[in-house]
Amino acid sequence: xxxxxxxxxxxxxxxxxxxxxxxxxxxxxxxxxxxxxxxxxxxxxxxxxxxxxxxxxxxxxxxxxxxxxxxxxxxxxxxxxxxxxxxxxxxxxxxxxxxxxxxxxxxxxxxxxxxxxxxxxxxxxxxxxxxxxx
Length: 134
Known about the structure:
Blueprint: H1 2-23, E1 35-45, E2 52-58, E3 64-70, H2 74-79, E4 92-99, E5 107-114, E6 119-121
Parallel strand pairs: 3-5
Antiparallel strand pairs: 1-2, 1-4, 2-3, 4-5, 5-6
């Protein structure tokens, strides 16, 4: 009976740990390419497990598209020079991202160039590893 209970608990742990591991996968980002986007910050979320922001980018046709950008955790960002106030709604920025593989607007941030010339860098997402892993 004890062996059966251990087997059931082990199986349950394995089943529930897979989604958590997949959550931190960087597979949806094309890490072989970097794309620069320039625009205006419309939102900045300083929250766990990942900070994020949106940038409105005006295309060559004059149309505006909203680009969601995912970042690491606030804890890791602080170690790289970020603060809760590093980005504000209305800031003009140039963002380097690993774009989404499916071609839709958005990506994982590599760096942000602020209007004052300050650059804030980040860690790339690691496929299959925890965020910030090297």
